[in-house]
Design a protein that fits this description.
This protein has seven helices and no strands. With 277 residues, the protein is mostly helical. The longest helix is centred in the middle third of the chain and has 25 residues. The relative contact order is 0.10.
């Protein structure tokens, strides 16, 4: 098989789209704000280092985050944005040794995270054989966004990321529809639905559209979620015990980490079973 016809790697195989905290200057622990809640034990404004951030940019309570009241940290995924901003945009110059870079670095990080997330989704769409009709456009979008991620701090902070997301979403929606088209029977459409706390235990949701659905604390135990489109679905505290998510589309590690599952939960091969399950 010639290189131009090889199947693209899944997002889980791309190191560029996986967080490498050892190459990051603790950006998620500084740049982003969080409010005291069930997810975070204390308030922290954007731009202020978390009190648990060590001088080597490592978390001082990493092994005890949930016990210390910071489960929100355990479900966050930067899709590799941290190391790209630290090592590419700012060339390995950290904000502690060069305080003048701090503001720009912290402003770029959330923008880069969105771009890296888009790259993750596009890469997954390119790994779907059924989505071949949109692969050319997806590859064009991939190259464009990869180029943007290597731009200057000024160019990154000036991006209209919402407009870019809108353009890419059209392609991802089409890719998802093509991938789900082979599922037999009538496919349920719960796109953007408020299913918070819904009782969906054992539900047949194979090939369903759950794009952007609110599934907080929903009971999805034993549900058939094979080939379901879960892009943007809020799975915080959702019960996935015994659920089958084989081939689930656009499901991220962060979504899985935010949910509850068990040894019987079947996950896509590119995702890892969270340690807290």
């Amino acid at each position: 098989m010639s290189p131009q016809h090889e199947a693209p790697a899944s997002p889980g195989d791309s190191e560029d789209l996986r967080a490498d905290c050892s190459s990051c200057f603790g950006l998620c622990c500084v740049a982003l704000p969080f409010a005291r809640s069930s997810d975070f034990a204390a308030d922290k404004p954007a731009g202020r280092p978390c009190s648990h951030l060590r001088t080597d940019f490592r978390c001082g309570i990493h092994e005890r985050l949930r016990d210390e009241g910071y489960p929100g940290c355990t479900v966050f995924d930067c899709f590799g944005a941290g190391q790209k901003v630290s090592q590419v945009t700012f060339g390995g110059t950290d904000w502690r040794r060069a305080p003048e870079t701090a503001r720009g670095m912290f402003e770029v990080f959330p923008v880069m995270r969105q771009l890296q997330e888009l790259l993750w989704y596009i890469t997954e769409a390119l790994a779907l054989p059924a989505a071949r009709p949109v692969h050319k456009e997806l590859r064009r979008a991939l190259a464009r966004i990869e180029d943007l991620t290597r731009g200057s701090a000024e160019s990154l902070t000036g991006l209209d990321v919402n407009a870019l997301r809108g353009e890419v979403n059209v392609l991802l929606l089409r890719a998802g529809e093509l991938a789900r088209a082979h599922v037999p029977g009538r496919r349920k459409n719960h796109r953007g639905a408020d299913l918070m706390g819904a009782r969906l235990s054992g539900a047949d949701l194979r090939g369903a559209s759950l794009r952007g659905a609110l599934l907080v604390a929903a009971d999805l135990s034993g549900a058939d979620l094979r080939d379901a489109d879960l892009i943007g679905a809020d799975l915080r505290d959702a019960d996935l015990c015994g659920a089958d998510l084989t081939g689930a589309l656009f499901l991220t590690q962060a979504q899985v980490n935010a949910a509850r599952g068990d040894a019987a939960t079947v996950l896509p091969s590119a995702l890892e079973r969270p340690a807290h399950w």
